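Batch manifest, entry 17 of 40.
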Amino acid sequence: MSAQLSWHVDLRVDGPDLRRAREQVCAALTGWDITNVITVHEALIVVSELVGNALRYGGEVVSVELDLRTDGIVISVLDSSPVLPRPRLAREDDEGGRGLQLVNALSVSWGAKPLPGGKRVWALIRLPR
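Output type: structure tokens
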């Protein structure tokens, strides 16, 4: 892979956007000839968690970006909230609170960066060799 490939979509907050984000990410990965089932599923879970958090806490417009690099796929979600995410320890009977734990388990690394007008939350998913 000699060049970095990028993909970007803006989502408006409403019900079908999470499904639309997954569908469009899947299409982008397929367009890049990334068809390994495990990699695609891991990427879709990470997208679901990051977009879900952004839609829940982040504001009206959420941007999803994918960058294909030699070391993997960087999934970035941008939103208008300045509050950086932090993992929490969910109790056994909690219905939520495990999203960032999933992101941490499925990615090589992840983080959040403050931006003017919001933040970027990203995760690096390794490509199979």
